[in-house]
Amino acid sequence: MDSRRGKPIQAFHSGRSILADVFTGLLLVSLGIVLGMICNANFPESYLHPYLQPQPLTPPPAPAPSPETACVGPRSPSPAPRMEFADFLAPSAGGGGGGLMHNMTDEELLWRASMEPRRVDASMPRGIVHKVAFLFLVTADLPLRPLWEKFFAGHEGLYSIYVHARPGYAGSPPRDSVFYGRMIPSQNTTWGTMNLVDAERRLLGNALLDLANARFALFSESCAPLLSFPAVYAYLTGSRASFVESYDRPVGRLRHWRWFTNRGVSLEHWRKGSQWFQMHRALAAEFVAEARYIDVFKGGHGKKNMEEHYLPTLVTLLGWGARSQNRSLTNVDWSHSRGGHPLRYGARDVTAELIERLRKGEGNCGYNGGVADLCYMFARKFAPDTLGKLLELAPKVMGFG
User: Fold this and answer.
1) Quick one: which of 142, 133, 180 has its CA closest to 161?
2) Average per-residue pLDDT in the chain?
3) Nearest to 136 by CA among 83, 178, 88, 82
């Protein structure tokens, strides 16, 4: 009797043990899932191509593991935050001395800069103010920086500044200067060579990353403004054309005609002109995207001054003539050329009469199908000792400062 009753009791206890084991197993599995979710919470996926994300020059150090963490194994560094639309409008804006620094190669930079938005409709953000990008191609210091600072003062949001100096230059303007943190990654340049064109394209490439930049103007350390910022801004943004000097130069083209005609650059396209351009955005994007003819000019076997022929010839090769006024807005006096260099102004040369003469130039310059009383917005070459005189004349003659 007792033995028959013992079997159901034993079965009951056995079934309860199995249920307890199952419950314990489910509890452990659930606990493992929760811990796994906690450990993986800090590893979201990156949804953007690495070229479209800010890249640090050196990887940040890995954080030390916390003894309190329940995750086993080393933790990966947190990925860069996802970029918003505002980052594409001004991806390089930022404080610190390296605000414009990045680790893209020239090829990667020009590839990204050549991508231009083509769709314009109601989905585009409103209230974007067009800016003028001022591109400074210099060797080291900018001697006329105080003059430019007065020129830019009070007009924040209407301009961008980009500086290409030699790679070994370690100087920096003060933190309160508009030039602080505006240096871009650079390469060595040599007068009279095509690496000057590389530097120009590098400046344009960085400036094109800011979608609000609508006009692009190139300067050297000896350039100075001849008018106030509002006057310059209105002249540049109001023009329907770019300003790229391109004129026929029979002597120069005959000297190199065989090399270039054998590579698709005919004599009728050969041009010469000043490299100090002022471009609208569409032309700047095509300039950085061009890959065929720049290789032809770079392969010129040591031919000199190709930087003065490449862009002017490109204007005719690609049919840009209708989109350019065929002149520069930077006045350069070649009437007293010495050793292949234009006239250089010293402190004794700088007068109100000189500024007025430089602005008018030859007079009656083409502008939007008509003529303009003022031909030039800028001029070069001003020696460093002209700074004091220029600062003195700025409020009286140029209208700023």
Assistant:
1) 133
2) 77
3) 178
CA dist 223 and 353 (Å) reads 18
Report the C-alpha gap between 279 and 394 in whole angstroms: 26
Q: How far apart are CA 84 and CA 4, in angstroms?
A: 77
Closest CA to 359 of 331, 327, 386, 333: 331
| Contacts with 218 (C-beta within 8 Å, 6 or more apart), sequence order | 135, 137, 200, 203, 275, 276, 277, 278
Q: Whole-prediction pTM value?
A: 0.74
Calculate ∠ Cα 183-162-358, nearest 5°: 130
Query: pLDDT band at residue 308, thresholds of 50, 70 and 90?
Result: confident
**Cβ-based neighbours of 235, under 8 Å, separated by 6 or more:** 227, 329, 372, 374, 377
Question: What pLDDT score does 375 carry?
Answer: 93
C-alpha torsion 276→324→160→50, nearest 10: -100
Collect all residues with Cβ–Cβ distance below 8 Å to 224 and sequence separation of at least 6.
144, 147, 378, 379, 380, 382, 386, 390
The secondary structure of the chain in percent helix, strand, coil, rounded to multiples of 5, reads 40, 10, 50
**C-alpha span between 211 and 136 (Å, rounded):** 19
